[in-house]
């Protein structure tokens, strides 16, 4: 995984949510959570694994909705932040945080209904092997996101602390076929890159987001979106 040492630092974990999901970043957080919920509804009683769960944004949300969730991450500091969130929330389902490697998941085959990985695919050293491992432990569904090659993301990609790999839709289609996964749905979003939203207050980000969504509904903009949310089924 790219940027592994940086990611595991205590100070990074403490500031992670504030730096990425405050100010205009709240719009990103909201949209990502909508994408996850739309993909796996109904959530209640589903057995879910989130790989690279970080500070538990999705794990806590899903457990609150009634899912039985395991959040796995390589960073002990990130997991600690997630546990603190869970303590402050009344959960309808169950939630467990485990430290582990996304490339070697410590679970038997077909153990979960759904496996999700948000904000991680672009960091995977071997995306095909990563999808294979996700598929191995899922008996039903895989949900993940990718950053897109032909988008504004490429303009500032070099400046990201961990770096990231950008994908075309055709590359992901090939990877899904190689790992025997069937595409159920893909949603494209954010013509403007995440970094812009994070750097401005909500009062400016909200009208930009409205414009972004309106332009994004045009068919000609499909391949210009910064991010794609993928929902695939296990055959």
From TrEMBL:
Pfam families for the chain: Methyltransf_11
GO biological process, one term: methylation
The keyword Transferase appears for this protein: yes
Domain Methyltransferase type positions: 49-139
Catalytic EC class: transferase
Protein name (Swiss-Prot/TrEMBL): Class I SAM-dependent methyltransferase
A molecular function (GO) term: methyltransferase activity
Protein EC: 2.1.1.-
Keywords: Methyltransferase, Transferase
PANTHER family recorded: METHYLTRANSFERASE (PTHR43591)
């Amino acid at each position: 995984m790219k940027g592994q040492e940086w990611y595991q630092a205590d100070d990074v974990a403490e500031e992670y949510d504030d730096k990425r999901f405050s100010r205009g970043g709240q719009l990103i957080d909201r949209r990502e959570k909508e994408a996850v919920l739309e993909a796996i509804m109904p959530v209640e009683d589903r057995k879910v694994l989130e790989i690279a769960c970080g500070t538990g944004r999705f794990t806590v949300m899903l457990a609150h909705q009634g899912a039985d969730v395991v959040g796995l991450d390589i960073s002990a500091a990130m997991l600690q932040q997630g546990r603190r969130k869970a303590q402050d929330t009344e959960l309808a389902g169950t939630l467990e945080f485990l430290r582990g490697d996304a490339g070697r998941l410590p679970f038997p085959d077909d153990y979960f209904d759904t496996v999700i990985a948000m904000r991680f695919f672009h960091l995977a050293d071997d995306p095909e092997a990563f999808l294979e491992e996700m598929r191995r432990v899922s008996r039903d569904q895989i949900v993940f996101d990718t950053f897109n090659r032909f988008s504004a993301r490429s303009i500032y990609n070099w400046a990201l602390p961990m770096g990231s790999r950008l994908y075309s839709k055709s590359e992901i289609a090939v990877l899904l076929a190689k790992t025997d996964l069937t595409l159920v749905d893909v949603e494209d979003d954010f013509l403007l890159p995440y970094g812009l939203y994070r750097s401005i207050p909500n009062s400016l980000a909200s009208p930009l987001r409205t414009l972004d969504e309106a332009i994004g509904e045009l068919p000609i903009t499909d391949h210009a979106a910064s991010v794609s949310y993928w929902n695939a089924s296990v055959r």
